[in-house]
Structures are given as structure tokens and as C-alpha cells.
Amino acid sequence: MKLSTFDPRTVPIHQIDVHLPAVSLNCLQPQALRQRFASPPNWQVELLAEKRFVSGPSVPAAVLIPLVMRSQPSLLLTLRTQHLSTHSGQIAFPGGKVDASDANAIAAALRETHEEIGLAAASIEILGQLPVYSTGSAFAVTPVVALVRSDFTLQPNPNEVAEVFEVPLAFLMNPAHHQHHQMLWQNSHRHWLSMPYHDGTTERFIWGATAGMLRNLYRFLSA
Fold first, then answer.
1. Which long-range contacts does 82-87 make (Cβ < 8 Å, 24+ apart)?
2. Using CA of residue 65, residue 165, residue 78, residue 183, what is the dihedral sign?
3. Per-residue pLDDT tens for 106-153?
4. What domain range includes position 184?
5. Which of 7, 108, 113, 212 could pair with 98 in a Cys bridge, judged by C-beta atoms 3.0 to 4.6 Å apart?
6. In this structure, are residues 9 and 198 in contact, taking their beta carbons and an 8 Å threshold?
7. Which distant-in-sequence residues (6+ apart) come within 8 Å of 156 by Cβ?
8. Bridge partners, residue 61, by sequence
9. Dihedrals phi, psi of 76, to nearest 5 degrees
10. What span, in angstroms and rounded, lies between the C-alpha atoms of 169 and 129?
């Protein structure tokens, strides 16, 4: 199996977490999110690392988890272009490698977000960070959670981003939409989550590292 031709939709679902409670709508409102990050609960991170499928040292990276402040909050996501060297054609958070010039992970996430989709820092309110998530492709990713004003403007970079779209946050924070997949590849069992969302015309197949970091956000908000 080549990663370039691998279609995660074809891997059977072996569990859907209908037994877990959804995060309440009240807890997804901006002020509730501010309070949660200002006074974090005792919680258990669920997913920290994927099994590596490349060798070499980990590369520090950062992504922005942009929560748009609408009447019903949503999550801003990107569809990566097909020609990129890593994670091409996948749904992702805006973000990328931490550069030497970046003061920290937050600075890297803000810079990469502006470079990828043109979202200005003036529209972004940083809430906090989730634990580092290590991907199978050797990135050590710091997820930076932020609120985004709903009157933002975007200028996606066509070399990196094929599309920018939003998914209701309540949908993603409901484990009844969290699907577990497992398969044997290179003599190793590999497990990942997916959170497919259909907007009425298009299926958004959110999976892998993006779904893993969203699962950690769910655990943080539901603790």
C-alpha cells in the first residue's frame, strides 16, 4: 500500500462512540471556552502519538484550531492541495513547521495560518494549547486553540490550500460521530479516528492527526 493512493474511507469501522456524552452547546460558547482554558480541569489526554511510518528525528510543528464565534460555533478547516509532499489532499488545520525565527508554537501557528489562508492575527484570540501530538509522518505538533471573529476575511494560498470550509463544532464534539478504524499495515496494527461530516453536498472526511487532536479537544472540554 502506498500512502499516495491510500483511501482511509475503505478501511472498516470497528467502533463508534455512541456511549460517550456530547459536549453541551453551552460549553461551546466563547465565554465558556475562555473559562475552561483559563482554569483547566483535571483531564486525561487520549491520543499522543501515532505509529511512525517514516524514520528520522521529529520535526516541531504547530497548528491553529480556529473556533469561529458564530451563533453556533464552528471549526475552520482546510483541504490541502494534491501536490504537497506531506498529507496532500487531506483535511487539516492551518499550520506547519516551527521556524527558527518563531518565538514559540503560538507564533508559528499564527504565521502559518496567515501564510496559508490569509487569516490575520487581529481576528484571532488565543485560548491556549493542547498536548503535543506526534504524527506518523514525524511531526511533533502543538495544537493552539483560538477563537476567531466571525467577520474575518481570507486569502487562501492556492499552492497549499485547495479549499477552506467550516464544520459545526457541536458535530465534532459529539462522540456519536467519532468512528474508530483499524487495519494491519507493514505487519503492524494501525488505529485512527474519523469524523466524516456531510454539509449537504460534500462529504468532509476528517481523519488521522486532525481527528486525533479534535478527540483530545473533546476530552478536554468534556472533563
1. 82/162, 84/160, 86/137, 86/139, 87/137, 87/208, 87/209
2. positive
3. 999 999 999 999 999 999 999 999 999 999 889 999 999 999 999 999
4. 32-222
5. 108
6. no
7. 78, 116, 117, 118, 163, 164
8. 97, 141
9. -90, 125
10. 17
Residue 1, pLDDT > 50, answer no
Indicate which CATH number applies to the domain containing 170.
3.90.79.10
* Residue whose C-alpha cell is 468534556: 222
Whether residue 16 lies inside any domain: the answer is no
User: Model-level pTM?
Assistant: 0.93
Residue 189 lies in a domain: yes
Instruction: Give the confidence band of 5 by pLDDT, cuts at 50, 70, 90.
Output: low
Distance CA 38, CA 96 (A): 26
For residue 2, tell me if it sits in a domain. no
User: What are the grid coordinates assigned to 5, written together?
Assistant: 493512493
Q: Which residues contact 38 (CB under 8 A, 6 or more apart)?
A: none
The structural domain count of the chain equals 1
- 17 belongs to a structural domain: no
Q: How far apart are CA 103 and CA 125, in angstroms?
A: 17
41 near 75, Cβ under 8 Å?
A: no
CA proximity to 119, closest of 79, 148, 90 = 148
At 120, phi and psi to the nearest 5?
A: -80, 145
C-alpha cell at 206: 476528517
